[in-house]
Amino acid sequence: MDRQRYYVSVQAKTITNHQGDAAYEFAIDALPEDIDKLQELFAAMEEFDEMSFIRNPLPGIPYHHDSENDGYDYYLKESYKLIGQLSDEKTRSFIASMPLNAET
User: Fold this and answer.
1) What's the pTM?
2) Which domain holds residue 82?
């Protein structure tokens, strides 16, 4: 099966195959199973984002001791890694320059 061009917004957690449908940050060339995996990562990010909503108003819990934020960060990093694997060299270089392995 041939790879198809998709346009991805990590911020909005959207994937479209028509460039003008929505704003996007990255263009990738992916197989349907790659898109399924990216959608799973975005769904996991959304779950952790919703779980953190309950905790966010509570003062005194540092970000680095918050399992909901840890989960969100993990899936965010995994999303960027997958996008990097499916992108052109310029995008791979950009993602490689991001501090994805920095401690929070």
Assistant:
1) 0.84
2) 32-96
